[in-house]
């Protein structure tokens, strides 16, 4: 059984899913320290004229705090902004009518902690792809022997080409003539639906 220790991202990009592709168990640690400008609260989608970053606002400036304690700031109507952005980006894609209701229901809930929202996001994405990986929340007693640790590896400031994880395999995107690689998993899900995992398998450098 292969175990991967990973960060928890907000609608993770394709490199993230290639990195966990062969895992049987994915261990997520809410005790990890929050890093500013990380994927914990942001993702990228493709609109008609640009790649747009969707960010979840958090309460206060949070230096040196565990991920599991980061609170979402609901004073900003970010849910409507994100849903509108997703609808604008993917409303005409093949699997929009099938997948979009999952995320409408998600954003109708108000999760106090960003950790809980992201965990539900990951669960939904894995369900759509029919991906039977086991999710485990790390504790003090979690066995760390023989696992692969990718925590801190995937950050917005470093390009995927610097790592030996993800090799872009093009699929039909809704906008643009040139393929835009390594966007949010949303981009691939709306284009390919349950077949998204096969694209990820082809995009993995271990393939």
Descriptive keywords:
globular; single chain; four-stranded parallel beta sheet; alpha/beta; 6 helices; 207 residues; 6 strands
Number of domains: 1
Number of strands: 6
Unreliable stretches (pLDDT < 50, length at least 5) are none
Helical proportion, percent range = 25-40%
Portion in beta strands: 5-15%
- What can be said about the biggest beta sheet? 4 strands, parallel
Q: How confident overall, as mean pLDDT?
A: 92
Along the chain, the helix and strand elements come as EHEEEHHHEEHH
Main structural class: alpha/beta
Read across the widest sheet, the strand sequence of neighbours is 5-2-1-6
**Global geometry:** globular
Number of H/I helices: 6
Instruction: Report the span from N to C terminus.
Output: 18 Å
Pfam families: WbqC (PF08889)
Protein name: WbqC family protein
InterPro entries: WbqC (IPR014985)
Structural commentary:
This is WbqC family protein. InterPro entries: WbqC. Pfam families: WbqC. The chain is of the alpha/beta class and 207 residues long. The protein has one domain (3-203). It has 6 helices and 6 strands, in the order βαβββαααββαα. The strands form 2 sheets. A 4-stranded parallel beta sheet has the order 5-2-1-6, with no helix packed on it. A two-stranded antiparallel sheet has the order 3-4. Helix 1 (14-19) links the parallel strand 1 (3-6) and strand 2. The protein is globular, with a radius of gyration of 16 Å. The protein starts with a strand and ends with a helix.
